[in-house]
Amino acid sequence: MWTNTPEGAGGGPVLPDGCMDLLWSEGRLLVAGPDTRPYVPEGAPRFWAGVRFFPGTAPALLGVPAHELRDLRVELADLWPASRVRRLRDRVEAAPDPATALEDIALERAERTTAPDPLLHRLVERLGEGRPVAATAAGLGIGTRALHRRCLGAFGYGPKTLARILRLQRALALARAGTPYAETAVRAGYADQPHLAREVRALAGMPLGQLLAGG
């Protein structure tokens, strides 16, 4: 669960992290699909509440393949019956804590939905540790083409893109903890510091120093 009121028009960029979110803001329920590039909120600052799902788990709960929502923010009413969404919206509006209400909705949905494929959870863990995609696929006993198809539905993109995004998150965690950039590059799994710099620009839209300074 999370809440946020951005400072300044639009707030800072939301970076790719492999996750999807159920969002609430100003009477609207939305779904944030998986990002492959930074998402910059538009308009005046406003209160947001959300539930962030572990990578690969949201599509089973929403009933929509992740690749159909890639790099999008869509109304929940575009995915579910409008009458159901109205009831949920009224429920969140009446709750003292919108984030807790969203979590309750997600947990209730999970109880009525088939559990996500456990293979995908293991995939995220292993790629998150920096293991190569091919070796990970072999270790999981699945071919690379079959893995790519399953990743599109669960994450919105293939395993190589997922690995890049998870590597970016590892690097950001290290750099924010004060690890020097050159050491960050090695520990996160990049070839060198210039490789780290290129990937941060590609996925975050700005240099690492600017990103750490708050954009």
TrEMBL record:
Source superkingdom: Bacteria
PROSITE patterns named among the record's database cross-references: HTH_ARAC_FAMILY_2
GO molecular function: DNA-binding transcription factor activity; sequence-specific DNA binding
The keyword Oxidoreductase is annotated on this UniProt entry: no
Keyword set includes DNA-binding: yes
Pfam families for the chain: DUF6597 (PF20240), HTH_18 (PF12833)
Residue span(s) of domain HTH araC/xylS-type: 117-214
Keyword terms, alphabetized: DNA-binding, Transcription, Transcription regulation
PANTHER family in the record: BLL1074 PROTEIN, HTH-TYPE TRANSCRIPTIONAL ACTIVATOR RHAS-RELATED
Protein name, UniProt field: AraC family transcriptional regulator
Organism: Streptomyces filipinensis
Organism placement in taxonomy: Bacteria, Bacillati, Actinomycetota, Actinomycetes, Kitasatosporales
